[in-house]
Amino acid sequence: MSRRAAFIYDKEMSQHVLRPDHPMRPVRLQQTCELLEAYGAFEGEFSQFISPRPATEEEIERFHHGEYVQAVKEFSAGEGLDRASRFNFSGEGDNPIYQGMYEAAALSTGGSLVAAELVESGDVDVAFNISGGLHHAAAGNPSGFCVFNDPVVAIQYLLTKGLRVVYVDIDAHHGDGVQTAFYDTDQVLTISLHESGMFLFPGTGGVEEMGVGPGKGYSINLPLYPGTDDQMYLRAFREVVPLLVKAFKPDILATQLGIDTYHTDPLTHLMLSSSGFEQAVADFAGMGIPWLAFGGGGYDLGAVARCWTLAYGVMAERELRDDLPGSYVGKYGGRHLRDAPGSVASIPEHIRLQAESFADNSVRMLKELVFPIHGIK
Fold first, then answer.
1. Phi, psi angles (nearest 5°) of residue 213
2. Which residues on adjacent β-strands are paired with residue 271?
3. 5-374 maps to which CATH number?
4. Catalytic residue among 64, 136, 194, 263, which?
5. What would the pLDDT profile of 211-265 be if each residue is shown by its tens digit?
6. 136 noted as active-site residue
7. Residues with Cβ < 8 Å from 20, sequence gap 6 or more?
8. Is there a contact between 174 and 194 (Cβ–Cβ < 8 Å)?
9. d(C-alpha 37, C-alpha 109), whole Å
10. Among the residues of the chain, which ranges form H helices?
11. In the predicted model, is pLDDT for residue 1 greater than 70?
């Protein structure tokens, strides 16, 4: 039987502009959807195109403080702006205020809730909300381009259904907001693979951040060195993630699929290709667990569209030809869906050795500190 997949999107998700010079450009969502449509990815009975709905205030407040939610609503309408700095908004910083901010954030969060509902009900085997994955937002403030933390809200919904959830975050940035939300519980296992906080925002995500109380050992961090390539990344991923997921025995697999790990991303320093990303997504598919997928970071727009198209191809079990469809090329350019061999810049040998040693050390520490808690030998 084919895997039943759902893609959550509406053009409204990609119309807002945070700031003209801001690196987070929601138009990347539209570009991804157009590429998938050009491939015919939503045709057939096993692939559904689903419209989102805005999350309600009550749903958003499953995680976020009511005072903060009301402030976002006011700021979005141009009111009460003298209080903006109190909530970590600033005109020139990561988190600007823009018209329609509340509506955009509520729709993105609602998209993740729709995806969670579809997976929890068994209507689909996997649902992908590319506008989601905004994993930095805290309960009372925005952070790192993220206003509302949709993964947390969606996971909270799944917890109300009595489900155990494993959340695996492969964005280049540490999934700090999600980790914080579930730092003291053993009902959610959070795993984040990311560029080390020694080199990249938000500066957290060391192996020693393991959780507290009942949650000790249920927050997993695998930091990586700048220059980490496909081979190093996948080796570390495969030595840690599958074993922990199997030991945890989750009801739902939630994944944040940020593609700012890509080798030409302007904000980060990892060196993954489209192939490395696609292989990681295929590993998730191979786990055979009901699967809730979010988007995330990614600031090279063409790479985002191509890699998330590859990701949905894996989810929907579609073979996508490498030549980009003519209708897409005519509008956005490019030639191939996948990276050509040799397209990733070579890494200096001393950097390669440092990256390999760093990854190996992170894996070793996790095996020593965390594996015993989960009965993994």
1. 55, -135
2. 229
3. 3.40.800.20
4. 136
5. 999 999 999 999 999 999 999 999 999 999 999 999 999 999 999 999 999 999 9
6. yes
7. none
8. yes
9. 23
10. 27-38, 57-60, 66-76, 101-121, 150-160, 176-181, 230-248, 274-285, 301-315, 326-332, 349-369
11. no
